[in-house]
Amino acid sequence: MDELRIENLSKDYDGFLAVDNVSLTIQPGELYSFLGPSGCGKTTLLRMIAGFEIPRTGRIYLGGQDITDLPPYKRPVNTIFQNYSLFPHMNVFDNVAFGLRIKKVPKTEIKDRVRKMLTLVKMEDQAAKYPSQLSGGQKQRIAIARALINEPKLLLLDEPLAALDLKLRQHMLIELMNIHDAVGITFIYVTHDQSEAMSISDRMAVMQNGNIVQSGLPDDIYERPTSIFSAYFIGETNLITGEVIGIEDEYVQLRCHRGNGEYFEIDSTFHFPPTLGSKLTVSLRPEKIAITRSKPRNQDDFNILRGTIEDILYVGTHTQYIVRVGDLKFRVFSQHKRVYFDEKALDWDEEVWLFWHDTDSWLINEVPDGVEASVEPRSLPQRASRKGIPAEV
Amino acid sequence: MNLEAFKQVNCSQTKASRRRDLASYLLTAPALIWLLVFFLVPYLIVFIYSFLSTDIYDVSFKFSLSAYRQLFSGIYLRPFYLAFRLAFITTFACLILAFPVAYYIARASEKMRNMLLILIIIPFWTNLIIRIFSWRIFLSYNGVLNTILLRLGLISTPLELMRTDFTVLLVMVYVYLPYMILPLYSALEKMDFTLLQAAMDLGANEVKAFFRITLPLAAEGIFAGSLLVFIPTLGAYLIPQLVGNQRSLYVGQVITYKIKNIPRNWPMASAMSFILLLLVAIMLIAMYAIYRKRTLAKRNV
Description:
The structure holds two protein chains of two kinds. Chain A is α+β, with helices and mostly antiparallel strands. Chain A folds into two domains: 4-228, P-loop containing nucleotide triphosphate hydrolases (Rossmann fold, 3-Layer(aba) Sandwich); 237-364, CATH 2.40.50.100. Helix content of chain A is 21%, strand content 35%. Chain A has eight helices and 20 strands. Chain A has helices spanning 42-50, 92-102, 107-120, 136-148, 166-183, 194-200, 218-223, 228-233, and strands at residues 4-13, 16-26, 31-35, 57-62, 65-66, 77-80, 154-158, 186-191, 203-208, 211-216, 238-247, 251-259, 262-269, 279-284, 290-292, 302-314, 318-325, 328-335, 351-357, 362-364. In chain A, the strands form four sheets. A six-stranded mixed sheet of chain A has the order 6-7-8-3-9-10, with helices on both faces. In chain A, strands 13-12-11-14-20 form a five-stranded antiparallel sheet. Chain A has a five-stranded antiparallel sheet with strand order 15-19-16-17-18, with no helix packed on it. In chain A, α2 (92-102) packs parallel to α4 (136-148). By secondary structure, chain B is mainly α. Chain B has a single domain, classed as MetI-like (MetI-like fold). Chain B has helices spanning 3-49, 66-71, 77-107, 110-121, 128-139, 144-151, 165-189, 194-201, 206-217, 219-234, 238-243, 251-260, 266-299, and strands at 53-54, 59-60. Chain B has a two-stranded antiparallel sheet with strand order 1-2. In chain B, a hairpin with a 4-residue loop joins β1 (53-54) and β2. The A-B interface holds A 50-52, 71-73, 77-79, 81, 83, 85-89, 91, 98-99, 102-103, 128-130, 132-133, 146-147, 150 and B 192, 194-195, 197-205, 208, 212-213, 216-217, 219, 298-299, 301.
């Protein structure tokens, strides 16, 4: 079968290493995502697979065949471009038929196959329209049809949903998954949107500075990040730095500085052998933390902290609390579930209890750069105004 | 809103739009009057003159078809043929030369682009006659080019570079090239070059991508540029007169001679001018029809 194998691929632009010695194998029929911030090399990697960029070193194999030196038009690979790149001087039919006409496929066959493709993307009645008459979602469908009609072994999608609005994006995502199931070929999906990547991918690779930082199943990467970067980039997280003061069979104890020479201790699971006395980081997802007014009753296997609510951000599906514990700030997501009838909503400056199960703290073999103990959440939103009163500037 | 109020609003809107119509008529009036007085009326005079009889210095106001009869008898068709041939070859040569230049400019960085465009426009700052004379100096028997070639020992006797049909073509192409480059550039500059990558992704090699994507998308520029080159070339007088020879007389030259040389033949000059105009008009209308069909097909389906 046609697996894609990338071996030691590198690419630089005037000394800037865009892709740095990347190796990976993508299984046939897989929907694989490259996820990373802009400039991480994901698009360069994709363009090398498509043939638009020539790698400095390394090889690309598709189904055992070395395609590294083939020009784009000789590769059994097709691309969905970010802005769709539909030909403006051709109507929908001619756009979709383009690849077949180049291959000099007989006219009647072209007609048949174009119709089939347009049916697949639900555009069968738009064949005579020109790209300028189509909406963003429709252009997207035509771009997909135009690529898939060539029966590529590999479909590359370069941020295909970036130009669509949120509702349409969610809709097209499901559509893409359905199309992937229908045609059964390998899809490689490039995006900077982590929720997009997590929901669509069979497997994915998180990229940073031209390297693959972590690859695997989406839930694996989310629940068990191996680096601060993947913990940070995928979803949101609290990073707590501490010193290892005890190691048991399954748990490790960390002593964390909360400021003013005060310390607290937390327990965490681990997936690598930590050494006593080393400084490590715990990643703790905000939705794993429970926040209550009253002290939790069950205290075995739980980490419990006392803190003060500094900020409340209501986001509809849940509320985000910023809770201050000493000098540290914890980000906590809490869904709007009522457990007791008389429960009152938590308020600003209220003293609260934070607790989470030991298995939800995830140990990372890294310390954040230059910071000893900081859990300042990434890109903290602007301080919200207190119940209509403008926030002090 | 009740019906009365609705009517009122509607009514005032029509008044406003009527006022706007009047304003647009008034604003276009100066241009219309200008065209009427300085374009249509002179051509009307030319048209009338073509049906009059010759006199040594002027015309006599007697109806005559002799100008047209002479014109289509044969000898006067050659200047038309030469002019059309020259115009076609010049246009085609300009197109071939201008395309890579326009393409290069369109793909250059923005800073570079402006610089290059200025370089294209700079020759316009010099008077046309001066530019033609510099070609004469450059190409003449004892001119710059011959001197250099002699000194280098590449030739032993000077080449006859002036007063050939090729010289006319050369200077024509030189003068009209910018008129082709600029519209081509403006068409190519609008083009999204990732379309070429898309074409190549779909199996087209560079040549196929050019003919199926770049060329059709540059069609507007090719149209405009060809008109801008073809029409003035057709009636060219100055360049054939200054660098051409007397064996190949172009229609523009013949028209001038008919007016300049005594006995004057105003009806013949007028008839030739009118036929030239007619031919150009027919071509323009045909091209416009093709163009409209293309764009209409693209917009309303």
